[in-house]
Design goal:
Layout lengths: L19 H18 L7 E4 L5 E7 L30 E7 L4 E8 H6 L5 H28 L13 E6 L5 H17 L7 E5 L1 H8 L2 H4 L8 E2 L4 E2 L1 E2 L2 E5 L35 E7 L3 E16 L4 E14 L5 E7 L1
Helix pairs in contact: 1-3
Length: 334
């Protein structure tokens, strides 16, 4: 029997690399899992670059409007020394750096693969994809929190980040709802668009909100959730996003060795900050930026010297806050 008579499952159209289709199957699994697990990447502003170490996003101030007097020049105004009608628009910038490559991988030995009675590729692909998705979400949320603690990009024109600390119940749904309306009021005062506002909460607070009848009762809200189904969609006009990737402890002493963005301004701290008592984060889509140089990619390679298959996923991107006025923290203390 000739080798050409054998049907090779991994070949593309019965030609070329015997493992070509195996890689594509693995890639499809991990890409789908990453997109499903990563909740916050679609909710922020992203930009892709092909070269360089960073990208700069401009921050544009506001213009002024004035009544015109007939016959006066809009350039010189009433006299040559006064440009009465010209606006001086202030401009600043926010620079976001590309962090080091973030990698998640697994090495599977030949003998283990042969002995195994189950398909390891799908669960392993799921595991490494979720590891990358968790890191991305944590960095985005850290950028939102850092923005809520930051000063305005253009003092006197744009606003500082803001937040509120509620007392009298560290897991109170009433406190959280009241704070959410405070965040919405703050965003309105800062001219933050009403569309694309989000409220990130952990599972504990999410299910506290589900049990609040005002949010899910049809007499108070229109199709805003399901008490029996355990779901709630909005509060104070903000879409609620449940996440398990928001820290709850003080991480400010830790360092991110591969982070190039020091979002909290701690001289190398990276994405780590003090999350004590933080129960929710409110933000607008424009609040945080992501700069990508290499989006999620996957690879599979046979390691001959190790008699093993290497499965690997990676990306190179960076995150930072763009608009402090569109970031708001909510803390609750007992």
């Amino acid at each position: 029997m000739a080798e050409s008579d054998i049907s090779r499952l991994g070949q593309n159209l019965a030609a070329g690399d015997d493992n070509a289709l195996f890689l594509k199957t693995f890639a499809g699994e991990i890409l789908a899992t990453f997109q499903e697990s990563n909740k916050f990447m679609p909710l922020i502003t992203s930009r892709t670059i092909s070269t360089g170490k960073s990208a700069v996003m401009p921050v544009i101030g506001t213009a002024a409007a004035k009544w015109h007097t007939a016959g006066e020049s809009v350039i010189t105004g009433a006299d040559a020394d006064s440009a009465a009608y010209l606006s001086q628009i202030k401009v600043a910038e926010r620079e976001i750096f590309i962090d080091d490559v973030l990698v998640s991988s697994v090495l599977v030995g030949d003998l283990d693969q042969m002995k195994s009675h189950w398909d390891y590729r799908s669960p392993y692909a799921d595991a490494i994809a979720r590891a990358l998705a968790k890191e991305a979400d944590e960095h985005i949320l850290a950028s939102v929190y850092a923005g809520s603690l930051a000063t305005a990009n253009i003092p006197g024109v744009t606003a500082d980040g803001a937040g509120v600390t509620k007392t009298g119940g560290a897991t109170s749904a009433d406190n959280l709802i009241e704070a959410a309306f405070t965040a919405a009021e703050t965003f309105d005062s800062n001219d933050v668009p009403r569309e694309d506002r989000y409220l990130a909460v952990g599972p504990q607070m999410y299910y506290k909100l589900v049990q609040d009848k005002d949010l899910v009762d049809r007499d108070f809200s229109t199709a805003n959730g399901d008490f029996a189904g355990g779901s709630v969609m909005k509060v104070a006009g903000m879409t609620i996003v449940q996440t398990n990737n928001m820290p709850t402890t003080d991480l400010s002493a830790a360092t991110d060795s591969g982070a190039k963005n020091d979002v909290f301004g701690g001289a190398g701290v990276g994405y780590n900050g003090n999350w004590t008592n933080v129960t929710a984060l409110a933000f607008h889509k424009s609040a945080v930026g992501c700069v990508k140089m290499a989006d999620l990619s996957v690879a599979s390679e046979y390691q001959l010297e190790r008699l093993s298959h290497l499965l690997l996923a990676k990306y190179a991107m960076g995150h930072n806050y763009l608009r402090p006025e569109a970031c708001f923290y909510i803390k609750q203390t007992a």
